[in-house]
Amino acid sequence: AQTVTQSQPEMSVQEAETVTLSCTYDTSESDYYLFWYKQPPSRQMILVIRQEAYKQQNATENRFSVNFQKAAKSFSLKISDSQLGDAAMYFCAYRSASGATNKLIFGTGTLLAVQP
Amino acid sequence: DVKVTQSSRYLVKRTGEKVFLECVQDMDHENMFWYRQDPGLGLRLIYFSYDVKMKEKGDIPEGYSVSREKKERFSLILESASTNQTSMYLCASRHRGHGNEQFFGPGTRLTVL
Predict the structure, then answer these.
(1) For residue A89, which of A55, A60, A67, A113 has the smallest C-alpha distance?
(2) Degrees, nearest 5: CA angle B85-A91-A60
(3) Which is it for strands B4-6 and B56-57: parallel, antiparallel or unpaired?
(4) Which residues of B touch A91 (CB under 8 A)?
(5) Which among A33, A91, A106 is the nearest to B99, CB-wise?
(6) pLDDT by position in tens, chain B (length 113)
(7) Which residue in B31, B44, B90 is closest to A102 by CB distance?
(8) Are B75 and B64 in contact (CB under 8 A)?
(9) Touching check for A55 and chain B: CB below 8 Å?
(10) How far apart are the C-alpha atoms of A105 and A46, rounded to whole Å?
(11) Sign of CA dihedral B90, B75, A93, A85
């Protein structure tokens, strides 16, 4: 069975600085998708960024980018120029790209604080 | 904009009560999901549905059931609420297809006394 591990329960960053959130996963599959979701306090969870495993190029979305290391099964999220609005719980998630499995498998989350 | 709504943001119930949590999406998504979120445990899948009247157990289905009579609506039922079901419940939906984005509702914080 696939698992997703986020080893940093909490992180803190100064406004305008860069922070990297870690995520590792375990799978025997070769084709899958990886996601980072953001859950602001008392607000809905939203997708931050998505990576297809067959793509070697790391995904980027404005200030958000990933470092996808397929062999190491690592999928970290880098937030550049951190803003107060980036403060949230961040979840890493995995989904198989084959078979009937349709489920997102989530890590336990990293709570990011942004200091002014 | 995709919209996933849940019937209540906060709910307080007594042990043994039957509890209904409702979720509605407006984008004609085939797939719908119910999760519970607990500190330190992340999101755990309770049940999901591929389409109308279809349902499958997730990782923690015990004590829960679901109903999907219409495509846009997915209900989670706690037949006899217990204190260990106090949690945040999140509904989500998406189009079928493994790479498609999953959209979440705002959550219902359920307290069982």
Answers:
(1) A113
(2) 160
(3) unpaired
(4) 42-43
(5) A33
(6) 668 999 999 999 999 999 999 999 999 999 999 999 998 899 999 999 988 989 999 999 999 999 999 999 999 999 999 999 999 999 999 988 767 889 999 999 999 99
(7) B31
(8) no
(9) no
(10) 16
(11) negative
